[in-house]
Write a structure and sequence with these properties.
Number of helices: 9
Order of helices and strands: EHEHEHEHEHEEEEHHHH
Radius of gyration: 20 Å
CATH class of the largest domain: Alpha Beta
CATH superfamily of the largest domain: Glycosidases
CATH architecture of the largest domain: Alpha-Beta Barrel
Number of domains: 2
Distance between the termini: 29 Å
Mean pLDDT: 91
Shape: globular
Strand content: 15-25%
CATH topology of the largest domain: TIM Barrel
Amino acid sequence: MWKGIDVSSNQGMINWGAVKTAGCDFAILRSTIKSGRPDKQFDANVVGCREQRIPFEVYKYTYALTPTQAVDEAQQVVSLLRSHGLTCRVWWDVEDNSLRTLNRGVLTGLIQSAADVIIGAGLEFGIYTGKSFYNEKVFDTTAFDCPFWMARYPSSGYYALADNPPADKYKPAPSQPLVAWQYTSKGRVDGITGPVDLNVCYIPFWEMQAPEYYLQDVWHGTSIARALESIGEDGSFQHRAKIAAVNGIVGYIGTAEQNTHMLNLLRTGQLRKV
Protein backbone atom coordinates (compact mmCIF):
# COMPACT_ATOMS: atom_id res chain seq x y z
CA MET A 1 0.00 0.00 0.00
CA TRP A 2 1.29 3.44 -0.98
CA LYS A 3 0.08 6.86 0.13
CA GLY A 4 -0.50 9.80 -2.18
CA ILE A 5 -2.48 12.93 -2.96
CA ASP A 6 -4.57 14.42 -5.75
CA VAL A 7 -4.25 18.14 -6.28
CA SER A 8 -5.37 21.10 -8.36
CA SER A 9 -5.11 24.87 -8.28
CA ASN A 10 -7.28 24.68 -5.15
CA GLN A 11 -4.09 23.80 -3.27
CA GLY A 12 -2.22 26.81 -4.65
CA MET A 13 1.57 26.70 -4.92
CA ILE A 14 2.87 23.43 -3.49
CA ASN A 15 6.26 22.84 -1.90
CA TRP A 16 6.88 19.46 -3.50
CA GLY A 17 10.13 18.96 -1.62
CA ALA A 18 8.24 19.14 1.68
CA VAL A 19 5.51 16.90 0.27
CA LYS A 20 8.11 14.29 -0.68
CA THR A 21 9.72 14.48 2.75
CA ALA A 22 6.30 14.03 4.36
CA GLY A 23 6.12 10.58 2.76
CA CYS A 24 4.08 11.14 -0.40
CA ASP A 25 4.56 8.18 -2.76
CA PHE A 26 2.53 9.46 -5.72
CA ALA A 27 0.32 12.28 -6.98
CA ILE A 28 -2.61 12.67 -9.34
CA LEU A 29 -2.82 16.12 -10.92
CA ARG A 30 -5.85 17.92 -12.34
CA SER A 31 -5.26 18.38 -16.04
CA THR A 32 -7.80 20.83 -17.47
CA ILE A 33 -10.62 22.88 -15.98
CA LYS A 34 -14.21 23.28 -17.20
CA SER A 35 -13.24 25.78 -19.91
CA GLY A 36 -10.73 23.33 -21.35
CA ARG A 37 -7.74 25.40 -20.29
CA PRO A 38 -4.99 23.78 -18.21
CA ASP A 39 -5.28 23.91 -14.45
CA LYS A 40 -3.39 27.03 -13.34
CA GLN A 41 -0.92 24.97 -11.31
CA PHE A 42 -0.50 22.11 -13.78
CA ASP A 43 2.87 23.21 -15.14
CA ALA A 44 4.27 23.89 -11.68
CA ASN A 45 2.93 20.60 -10.33
CA VAL A 46 4.46 18.61 -13.19
CA VAL A 47 7.82 20.29 -12.65
CA GLY A 48 7.61 19.73 -8.89
CA CYS A 49 6.79 16.05 -9.23
CA ARG A 50 9.57 15.54 -11.76
CA GLU A 51 12.15 17.36 -9.65
CA GLN A 52 11.24 15.33 -6.57
CA ARG A 53 10.80 12.10 -8.56
CA ILE A 54 7.23 11.68 -7.37
CA PRO A 55 5.32 9.42 -9.80
CA PHE A 56 2.17 11.08 -11.09
CA GLU A 57 -0.87 10.65 -13.30
CA VAL A 58 -3.64 13.10 -14.21
CA TYR A 59 -7.38 13.39 -13.85
CA LYS A 60 -10.12 15.16 -15.75
CA TYR A 61 -13.30 16.23 -13.92
CA THR A 62 -15.93 15.78 -16.60
CA TYR A 63 -18.90 18.06 -17.15
CA ALA A 64 -19.79 16.57 -20.55
CA LEU A 65 -23.51 16.13 -21.23
CA THR A 66 -23.21 15.35 -24.95
CA PRO A 67 -20.90 13.14 -27.04
CA THR A 68 -19.33 16.21 -28.64
CA GLN A 69 -18.50 17.67 -25.23
CA ALA A 70 -17.02 14.37 -24.04
CA VAL A 71 -14.79 14.10 -27.10
CA ASP A 72 -13.72 17.74 -26.78
CA GLU A 73 -12.80 17.27 -23.12
CA ALA A 74 -10.75 14.19 -23.90
CA GLN A 75 -8.97 15.85 -26.82
CA GLN A 76 -8.08 18.82 -24.62
CA VAL A 77 -6.43 16.49 -22.10
CA VAL A 78 -4.56 14.60 -24.81
CA SER A 79 -3.26 17.88 -26.27
CA LEU A 80 -2.11 19.05 -22.84
CA LEU A 81 -0.25 15.83 -22.13
CA ARG A 82 1.40 15.83 -25.55
CA SER A 83 2.57 19.40 -25.06
CA HIS A 84 4.41 18.21 -21.94
CA GLY A 85 5.67 14.96 -23.43
CA LEU A 86 3.56 12.96 -20.97
CA THR A 87 2.23 9.46 -21.55
CA CYS A 88 0.61 8.84 -18.17
CA ARG A 89 -2.83 7.44 -17.50
CA VAL A 90 -5.87 9.72 -17.55
CA TRP A 91 -8.45 9.24 -14.80
CA TRP A 92 -11.94 10.24 -15.95
CA ASP A 93 -13.59 11.85 -12.93
CA VAL A 94 -17.30 10.96 -12.97
CA GLU A 95 -18.94 12.65 -10.00
CA ASP A 96 -20.59 15.93 -10.99
CA ASN A 97 -24.25 16.04 -9.92
CA SER A 98 -25.30 17.28 -13.36
CA LEU A 99 -24.44 13.81 -14.69
CA ARG A 100 -27.23 12.31 -12.60
CA THR A 101 -29.75 14.02 -14.89
CA LEU A 102 -28.63 11.82 -17.78
CA ASN A 103 -30.02 8.49 -18.79
CA ARG A 104 -27.77 5.67 -17.56
CA GLY A 105 -27.04 4.53 -21.08
CA VAL A 106 -26.26 8.05 -22.25
CA LEU A 107 -23.73 8.65 -19.46
CA THR A 108 -22.12 5.28 -20.14
CA GLY A 109 -21.77 6.26 -23.79
CA LEU A 110 -20.20 9.60 -22.89
CA ILE A 111 -17.56 7.91 -20.74
CA GLN A 112 -16.87 5.44 -23.53
CA SER A 113 -16.51 8.29 -26.05
CA ALA A 114 -13.86 9.88 -23.84
CA ALA A 115 -12.14 6.53 -23.34
CA ASP A 116 -12.00 5.96 -27.09
CA VAL A 117 -10.19 9.28 -27.62
CA ILE A 118 -7.71 8.72 -24.81
CA ILE A 119 -6.96 5.10 -25.60
CA GLY A 120 -6.79 5.98 -29.28
CA ALA A 121 -4.04 8.47 -28.41
CA GLY A 122 -2.01 5.64 -26.87
CA LEU A 123 -2.79 6.56 -23.26
CA GLU A 124 -4.21 4.44 -20.46
CA PHE A 125 -7.71 5.19 -19.20
CA GLY A 126 -9.22 4.78 -15.75
CA ILE A 127 -12.40 5.88 -14.01
CA TYR A 128 -12.65 7.85 -10.78
CA THR A 129 -16.01 7.97 -9.07
CA GLY A 130 -17.64 7.97 -5.67
CA LYS A 131 -19.02 4.91 -3.93
CA SER A 132 -22.56 6.26 -4.23
CA PHE A 133 -22.26 6.82 -8.00
CA TYR A 134 -20.95 3.29 -8.37
CA ASN A 135 -23.47 1.54 -6.12
CA GLU A 136 -26.42 3.47 -7.54
CA LYS A 137 -25.31 2.45 -11.06
CA VAL A 138 -25.57 6.01 -12.36
CA PHE A 139 -23.61 4.61 -15.29
CA ASP A 140 -23.12 1.01 -16.40
CA THR A 141 -19.97 0.07 -14.51
CA THR A 142 -19.96 -3.39 -16.07
CA ALA A 143 -19.31 -1.82 -19.48
CA PHE A 144 -15.74 -0.98 -18.45
CA ASP A 145 -12.87 -3.29 -17.62
CA CYS A 146 -10.49 -0.42 -16.88
CA PRO A 147 -9.02 0.27 -13.43
CA PHE A 148 -11.12 2.17 -10.92
CA TRP A 149 -10.11 4.80 -8.36
CA MET A 150 -12.92 5.36 -5.89
CA ALA A 151 -13.85 7.75 -3.12
CA ARG A 152 -15.41 6.83 0.18
CA TYR A 153 -15.00 8.91 3.33
CA PRO A 154 -15.71 6.83 6.47
CA SER A 155 -14.79 9.71 8.78
CA SER A 156 -15.36 13.46 8.73
CA GLY A 157 -12.17 14.09 10.70
CA TYR A 158 -8.78 15.25 9.53
CA TYR A 159 -5.95 12.90 8.58
CA ALA A 160 -2.25 13.58 8.37
CA LEU A 161 -0.46 11.77 5.57
CA ALA A 162 1.49 9.81 8.19
CA ASP A 163 -1.72 8.54 9.82
CA ASN A 164 -3.03 5.10 9.02
CA PRO A 165 -5.94 5.19 6.56
CA PRO A 166 -9.34 3.83 7.63
CA ALA A 167 -9.73 0.09 8.11
CA ASP A 168 -10.08 -2.06 5.02
CA LYS A 169 -13.69 -2.85 5.88
CA TYR A 170 -14.54 0.67 4.67
CA LYS A 171 -12.69 0.29 1.38
CA PRO A 172 -14.85 0.37 -1.80
CA ALA A 173 -15.14 -2.99 -3.53
CA PRO A 174 -15.79 -2.56 -7.26
CA SER A 175 -15.81 -5.58 -9.53
CA GLN A 176 -12.99 -3.97 -11.53
CA PRO A 177 -9.40 -3.64 -10.25
CA LEU A 178 -9.29 -1.02 -7.49
CA VAL A 179 -6.09 0.92 -8.09
CA ALA A 180 -6.65 3.58 -5.43
CA TRP A 181 -9.01 4.62 -2.64
CA GLN A 182 -9.56 8.29 -1.84
CA TYR A 183 -10.46 8.14 1.84
CA THR A 184 -10.63 11.81 2.84
CA SER A 185 -10.78 15.33 1.48
CA LYS A 186 -9.43 16.66 4.77
CA GLY A 187 -5.82 15.61 4.54
CA ARG A 188 -2.95 17.56 6.01
CA VAL A 189 0.40 17.37 4.28
CA ASP A 190 3.55 19.41 4.86
CA GLY A 191 4.15 21.67 1.85
CA ILE A 192 0.44 22.21 1.17
CA THR A 193 -1.61 25.00 2.71
CA GLY A 194 -5.09 23.83 3.62
CA PRO A 195 -6.84 20.48 3.18
CA VAL A 196 -6.00 18.03 0.42
CA ASP A 197 -7.41 14.70 -0.78
CA LEU A 198 -5.52 11.65 0.52
CA ASN A 199 -5.39 8.30 -1.23
CA VAL A 200 -3.95 4.86 -0.84
CA CYS A 201 -2.75 3.02 -3.93
CA TYR A 202 -2.85 -0.78 -4.20
CA ILE A 203 -1.38 -1.23 -7.68
CA PRO A 204 1.71 0.99 -8.11
CA PHE A 205 1.34 2.42 -11.61
CA TRP A 206 4.91 3.79 -11.50
CA GLU A 207 6.33 0.26 -11.52
CA MET A 208 4.40 -0.46 -14.70
CA GLN A 209 5.62 2.69 -16.42
CA ALA A 210 9.39 2.55 -16.00
CA PRO A 211 10.98 5.30 -18.10
CA GLU A 212 13.11 4.39 -21.09
CA TYR A 213 16.36 6.19 -21.84
CA TYR A 214 18.34 6.79 -25.00
CA LEU A 215 21.58 4.84 -25.03
CA GLN A 216 24.64 6.78 -23.95
CA ASP A 217 25.98 8.60 -26.99
CA VAL A 218 29.58 9.54 -27.72
CA TRP A 219 28.71 12.46 -30.01
CA HIS A 220 31.52 15.00 -29.73
CA GLY A 221 29.77 17.92 -31.40
CA THR A 222 27.71 20.64 -29.76
CA SER A 223 24.40 20.15 -31.60
CA ILE A 224 21.67 18.17 -29.83
CA ALA A 225 19.78 17.97 -33.14
CA ARG A 226 22.70 16.27 -34.89
CA ALA A 227 23.39 14.10 -31.86
CA LEU A 228 19.83 12.78 -32.00
CA GLU A 229 20.07 12.23 -35.75
CA SER A 230 23.31 10.29 -35.24
CA ILE A 231 21.37 7.66 -33.26
CA GLY A 232 18.48 7.54 -35.72
CA GLU A 233 16.18 9.95 -33.88
CA ASP A 234 14.26 12.93 -35.23
CA GLY A 235 16.30 16.06 -34.54
CA SER A 236 13.56 18.55 -35.47
CA PHE A 237 12.58 21.32 -33.10
CA GLN A 238 9.12 19.80 -32.60
CA HIS A 239 10.57 16.45 -31.51
CA ARG A 240 13.22 18.08 -29.34
CA ALA A 241 10.47 20.02 -27.56
CA LYS A 242 8.73 16.75 -26.70
CA ILE A 243 11.97 15.23 -25.42
CA ALA A 244 12.64 18.36 -23.39
CA ALA A 245 9.21 18.19 -21.75
CA VAL A 246 9.70 14.52 -20.77
CA ASN A 247 13.00 15.47 -19.16
CA GLY A 248 11.57 18.29 -17.07
CA ILE A 249 12.62 21.17 -19.34
CA VAL A 250 9.52 23.37 -19.37
CA GLY A 251 9.02 26.07 -22.00
CA TYR A 252 11.58 24.69 -24.45
CA ILE A 253 12.53 27.26 -27.10
CA GLY A 254 15.87 25.81 -28.16
CA THR A 255 18.23 28.01 -26.16
CA ALA A 256 21.88 27.05 -25.92
CA GLU A 257 21.46 26.28 -22.22
CA GLN A 258 18.49 23.99 -22.85
CA ASN A 259 20.19 22.19 -25.73
CA THR A 260 23.43 21.72 -23.79
CA HIS A 261 21.50 20.26 -20.88
CA MET A 262 19.80 17.72 -23.15
CA LEU A 263 23.10 16.91 -24.83
CA ASN A 264 24.73 16.25 -21.46
CA LEU A 265 21.86 13.96 -20.47
CA LEU A 266 22.27 12.06 -23.73
CA ARG A 267 26.03 11.70 -23.28
CA THR A 268 25.52 10.19 -19.82
CA GLY A 269 22.64 7.89 -20.74
CA GLN A 270 20.12 9.90 -18.70
CA LEU A 271 17.99 11.38 -21.51
CA ARG A 272 14.48 9.95 -21.21
CA LYS A 273 12.70 8.80 -24.34
CA VAL A 274 9.37 10.30 -25.42
